[in-house]
Amino acid sequence: MKGQITASLGFFAKLALSQSVIYSGSGYGTYYYDIQHPQSCGQDLSVANTGNVECSQFIALNLNQINSNNLVAMNHSLIASNLAQYCGRQVVVSVNGQPSSTPFFIGDGCERCGTGSSTGPWNPNGAPGLDFSFSALSALNSNACNNGHIDISWQVLDTTLYNFDTNAPGQPEGPVSGGGNPGNGGGSTCTWAGHCQGASCSSDNDCSDSLVCNSGVCSADSGSSGSTPPATCSWEGHCQGASCSSDDDCSDSLVCNSGKCSP
Length: 263
Ligand SMILES: *[C@@H]1O[C@H](CO)[C@@H](O)[C@H](O)[C@H]1NC(C)=O
Known about the structure:
The protein is an alpha+beta fold and 263 residues long. The protein has a single domain, classed as RlpA-like domain (Barwin-like endoglucanases, Beta Barrel), CATH 2.40.40. The chain has six helices and 15 strands. The strands form five sheets. Strands 1, 4, 5, 6, 7, 8 and 9 form a seven-stranded mixed β-sheet that branches. The N terminus is likely disordered. It binds 2-acetamido-2-deoxy-beta-D-glucopyranose (NAG).
């Protein structure tokens, strides 16, 4: 179990222990598609949704087929140089230094993100950054629609959230089972991306929120203690299920049956 206070303090220390950052930077977030709301910010993004993603090379998958608003596009030149390295990897996106808990993953290349100066400034034809779904971008910063771009920083981790035929050849293409469903818009997950139910762990501290580490996998606490509330009766400690040696040890009308107070 992990307290919420340690969550922010321990975040990067824990990343350093269990996950490596394979690419990071700062720049600008923009949007180019939206599966759930193709009509957004006065634009029709439905054609963009039919575009094939760069990470699926052999079986052409388009954004609609991947069906997740958490797919992110990165520097096209860089991803094209090593699809296996970047595709499907988790991206922690921060706004004003605050990491988002949305489990973003790399799935596509972004032309604008690959040209221009790697230190900015903003230039619609070339500036560093990532390209998002509109819903995800506006959840990160409500100015997304008005400004068209927002300031972000990012860390791509070596954690795989999505299997493409480029990064996981031979595997079925789709969300990594047990690795946290990439989801649509990040509503159904936990507060510590990559540490949700099904993620691998070595102790409870590796698991988000109230999840516990059970046989190396973050799991909901389903231990026997606490699953049935203790029975109440007029003589505390001598209620149903309490151990006894005679009926006199049991409250009210309970009787001692095989060493346990029973109805
Ligand atoms: C994109 O990646 C290429 C290859 O690593 C690099 O040369 C270029 O500077 C990057 N572009 C930006 C805008 O960061």
